[in-house]
């Protein structure tokens, strides 16, 4: 067995074994704490809602076990199973232009992966989500959304892949710097155009018409020094009863979006507190920091790819005889998650730090009790588990555990909310 093949198999077993172990820990921990909510929520979360959250978490976890098996099988098919080599040879038989063949190869990998995962996504939506009363979408709408996403991926991804392969072929040893610049420019462009060009393809966005709420929000934005192109309501209820709020876009395209389900769930004070949390991400420059982090990580990974694509053992160890730029890209992005998963706690910790900072900002800009009551309502209505396994949470949760988050906010309760200057 090739030495790198042994390393890859060991990493695959470690990564998927760790993920499975964490998932089983999560299931066991949630089940053992199903009989009663944490003491901090005993007065606010009815036992029936706590049972529902536990059962919902367990149902999703069981699907997650199957998803892990499918993901591992698909990865082995493309690599040691010879699937990538087969796809390369099949496409090369009728596409003689290397750039077109390479683009088709990468799109083909994405298409096969999407088709394999489609039945499981369908099951999640129409069995798990429907069982717990969250699904509001019809199968036809689900398929239309899937086709739209695939078409957008083709329209945006096809030219990007073609450009990347072209740069890899003509820019010599420094190709990865050029590709990095293109990749960062592409991501910034998508962030800028997403609110006005992409998101409306899936949902309707209408200006907030509640005058009293709009005035409250505008006053909050003025206190925070935030300028947006508008405050919009999204018809999230078309697909799910889950509620959410976010702001999106860059520069003048920034807009604030509320799910219509969220507006139906929360009071005006709670909505204001949730928005203050989102504004906290803006004021603490979390988006800029994450873009900067993505830039550094993508630069490092492209430098690694530039080294690997020159190494014959990289291809041979992953079951591919053909060494070219498209194959190198496909292999790299297929196996990269296997090696990076053990580092997940670092990224999760970084994200949770940002959430605590945004909560602290909201607690200063509005009354912290309003955010506490909003979070409790959202935990209950979205059937979010209040008792995640600590190790599972360490790896997977981008938000702090509910008990920790509420305790932190309640520590601000004695402070009177003071307006902040921009």
Task: Describe the structure concisely.
The protein contains 16 helices and 4 strands.
Please outline the helices and strands.
Elements: H1 3-32, H2 47-78, H3 83-92, H4 98-131, H5 139-170, H6 175-198, E1 205-207, H7 211-224, E2 231-234, E3 245-248, E4 255-259, H8 260-265, H9 268-283, H10 286-308, H11 312-316, H12 325-340, H13 344-365, H14 368-381, H15 390-396, H16 402-410
Helix pairs in contact: 1-2, 1-15, 2-4, 3-4, 4-5, 4-12, 5-6, 6-10, 7-9, 9-13, 9-14, 14-16
Give a written overview of the molecule.
By secondary structure, this protein is mainly alpha-helical. The chain has a domain at 3-173 and 312-341. The protein contains 16 helices and 4 strands. It has helices at 3-32, 47-78, 83-92, 98-131, 139-170, 175-198, 211-224, 260-265, 268-283, 286-308, 312-316, 325-340, 344-365, 368-381, 390-396, 402-410; strands at residues 205-207, 231-234, 245-248, 255-259. A 4-stranded mixed beta sheet has the order 1-2-4-3. α1 packs antiparallel against α2 and α4 (98-131) runs parallel beside α12. It starts with a helix and ends in a 12-residue tail after the last helix. The model is unreliable at 416-422 (pLDDT under 50).
Mean pLDDT: 92
Uncertain stretches? 416-422
Q: Helix fraction? A: 55-70%
Gross geometry: globular
**Biggest sheet overview:** 4 strands, mixed
Distance between the termini: 62 Å
Strand line-up across the major sheet: 1-2-4-3
SSE-based structural type: mainly alpha
Secondary-structure element string: HHHHHHEHEEEHHHHHHHHH
Please count the beta strands (DSSP E, at least 2 residues each): 4
Radius of gyration: 24 Å
């Amino acid at each position: 067995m090739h030495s790198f093949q042994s390393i890859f198999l060991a990493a695959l077993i470690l990564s998927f074994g760790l993920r499975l172990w964490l998932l089983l820990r999560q299931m066991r921990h949630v089940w053992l704490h199903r009989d009663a909510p944490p003491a901090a929520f005993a007065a606010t979360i009815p036992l029936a809602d706590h049972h529902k959250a536990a059962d919902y978490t367990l149902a999703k976890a069981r699907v997650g076990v199957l998803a892990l098996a499918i993901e591992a099988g698909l990865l082995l098919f493309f690599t040691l199973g010879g699937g990538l080599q087969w796809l390369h040879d099949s496409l090369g038989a009728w596409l003689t232009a290397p750039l077109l063949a390479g683009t088709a190869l990468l799109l083909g990998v994405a298409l096969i992966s999407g088709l394999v995962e489609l039945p499981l996504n369908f099951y999640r939506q129409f069995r798990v989500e429907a069982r717990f009363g969250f699904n509001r979408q019809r199968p036809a709408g689900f398929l239309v959304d899937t086709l739209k996403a695939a078409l957008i991926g083709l329209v945006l991804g096809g030219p990007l892949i073609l450009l990347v392969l072209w740069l890899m072929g003509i820019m010599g040893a420094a190709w990865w710097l050029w590709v990095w610049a293109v990749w960062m420019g592409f991501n910034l462009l998508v962030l800028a155009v997403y609110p006005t060009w992409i998101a409306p393809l899936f949902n309707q966005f209408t200006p907030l018409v509640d005058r009293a709420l709009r005035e409250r929000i505008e006053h909050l934005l003025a206190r925070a020094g935030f300028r947006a192109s508008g405050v919009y309501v999204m018809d999230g209820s078309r697909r799910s009863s889950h509620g959410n709020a976010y702001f999106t876009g860059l520069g003048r395209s920034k807009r604030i979006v509320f799910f219509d389900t969220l507006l139906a769930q929360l009071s005006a004070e709670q909505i204001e507190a949730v928005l203050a949390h989102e504004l906290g991400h803006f004021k603490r420059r979390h988006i800029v920091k994450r873009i900067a982090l993505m830039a550094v990580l993508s630069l490092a990974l492209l430098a690694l790819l530039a080294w690997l694509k020159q190494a014959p053992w990289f291809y041979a160890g992953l079951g591919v005889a053909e060494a070219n730029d498209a194959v190198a890209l496909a292999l790299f992005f297929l196996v990269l998650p296997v090696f990076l998963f053990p580092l997940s706690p670092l990224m999760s910790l970084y994200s949770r730090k940002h959430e605590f900072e945004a909560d602290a900002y909201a607690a200063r800009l509005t009354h912290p009790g309003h955010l506490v009551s909003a979070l409790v309502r959202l935990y209950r209505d979205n059937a979010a588990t209040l008792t995640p396994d600590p190790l599972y949470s360490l790896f997977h949760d981008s938000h702090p555990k509910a008990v920790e988050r509420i305790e932190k906010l309640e520590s601000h309760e004695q402070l009177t909310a003071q307006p902040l200057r921009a």
